[in-house]
Amino acid sequence: MSNRNEFGITHLRHVDLAVPDYDTQRSFYKDTWGLTETGTDGDLSYLATEGSPEQYVIRLRKAAEKRLDLISFGAEDDAAVDALAARLAAAGVTIVAAPDQLQTAGGGYGFRFFDVDGRTIEISSGVQTRRHRAVEEGEAIPVRISHAVMNSDDINRTREFYETHLGFKLTDSLWGQHMGEMMHFMRCNDWHHSLALAKGPHTSVHHVSFEMRGLDEYMRGTGRVMRAGIRKVWGPGRHMAGNNTFSYFLDPSGNTMEYTTELERLETDQWHPSVYDIADPMTQDQWGTADPMSELIAKESFNDKDRGVFVAPPV
């Protein structure tokens, strides 16, 4: 069985955020969310998960305006990076940084481009790994970055871009009678999704998700963040699509962050995508422990209109 991406994309590496409240955000991710700061470089902070070999999973950049700087995905090797860059350029996709040695933590070889909504996407190979460890029983810190969900005002156009140009596959979708298709779950490996596209009023970050060791660690982490006074958006509960648990919180800049665990891994290439009706309460939360999904909850993750659309980050 293989769910290998046809263009050599392997996994989600990291999500980079620009924030005006830099010191507050650093404190939140280190002291409350459970990430490890592996280094700083001027106004940059690199934050890793203890259970992952990635150099970092969140990069914070001090900036006057909040924005998504970029989303980074790994590639099999340098040849895959070069081939994908050439393919995208030939298709008229705007390349904002040609394949070259990367200058951020861990180095590597990669390039950057704008997706159809104007997000900066990085594809890289050969990034140095870091010493990591097994997260222990009862240790309520993230093991790895799980997935990133992005808002788009045309999720079918965005889905087609990622399918056509990056080889992502549709796993499942959410649908509502009055709103039509609400979310597409996309995969580049055997995880149910590494990227998802949510219907929103504008391009922005919907949420970034972090995998916990198990259910007990997931609940302990959820409780710790609640006790710290961080605003909880939704959860705890368990979704139908992906079968994963969820607890959503707002970071100090208003970006939604999620603790999750037990995200489904696909066991066959012949996956048949399902369309789940959001009117069915089991779709949103199989446990029935979270508040029912409502327009007010949904709006929490619309986020601010991204100031970085079609503007490459400075670093």
UniProtKB/TrEMBL annotation:
State the Gene3D superfamilies in the record: 2,3-Dihydroxybiphenyl 1,2-Dioxygenase, domain 1
Span of the secretion signal? none
Q: Which InterPro entries match?
A: Glyas_Bleomycin-R_OHBP_Dase (IPR029068), Glyas_Fos-R_dOase_dom (IPR004360), GlyoxalaseI/FosfomycinResist (IPR050383), VOC_core (IPR037523)
Q: Which Pfam families match?
A: Glyoxalase
Specify the VOC domain's residue ranges: 11-126, 144-262
Protein name per Swiss-Prot or TrEMBL: VOC family protein
Could you tell me which species this protein originates from? Paractinoplanes ovalisporus
Q: What is the lineage of its organism?
A: Bacteria, Bacillati, Actinomycetota, Actinomycetes, Micromonosporales
